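quick one before i forget lol
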Amino acid sequence: MKVGFVGLGAMGLPMTRNLLGAGHEVTVASRSPGPVATAVSLGASAAASVAELAGASEVVFLCVPNSPEVVEVVDALVPALGGRTIVLDCSTIDPDVERVQHEKVRSTGARYLDAPLSGGTVGAEKGTLTVMVGGDAGTVDEARPVLGAVAGLVVHVGGPGMGQVVKLCNNLIYAAQMVATAEATALATRSGVDLDKLLEVLLHSTGDCTAVRTRLPVPGVVADSPASNGWKPGFMTDLMAKDIDLALAYGARAGVPLGVTATARQVLTAASTAGYGREDFSALAKVVLRAAGVE
């Protein structure tokens, strides 16, 4: 298929690489010239504008940081969209803002799906992302072949905006997991527990979770964790904070109290203030450990 990709960041560039590897013709656009040059070296074509990209594509991926940027890109796309084009927004944004973008694109005769991602940069590199899709079921079926190039699992979760709601639910759980994992690590360390033994027990007990398995926040315990690799981000602290803000705002509008989520946001705020905003979000544990007197 002829695919356009807008936004070649930590997720977008490896997704583009996988789309090219699957045999799709890919046209790219991004604010930073470096990733565009890399994509071109892999076989992609560079568009002079988002509108030019739209005109060359049957399916257009968006993968940008926030709601205002999605709105900006969609507004630039709309005049150039063909009647059968599918726009796939893989960003994580406000569900209500996303529903407005659905309407904008549908008014042109084109189709729109919100398709946020889970799996981080590792999943993007491996092509094993989970995609939670909101929108028309028939459009989802049409998009599955191209989504299959970047994802191991594609789930249609409901109508417009529902992909974003499910993504926010996922991330608020993950943030809470990480705070609990950090606190458990601090308590165990302060008490003299062997952390390798702690990990062994947790992996076979009710405390097992993704944060424990992949982000136990002490160097040398989990070999491929951010803590063991200079806190290199699979998912940055500032991006998790942005997603938690979205969850809290949407929860308030929905009348759902999110007390644990609000606590996780406080810890993320402390981590960003301490200078860890561009490190992996598991670096929030450094704040927790320091407060416990553990370095």
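fyi The radius of gyration is 20 Å.
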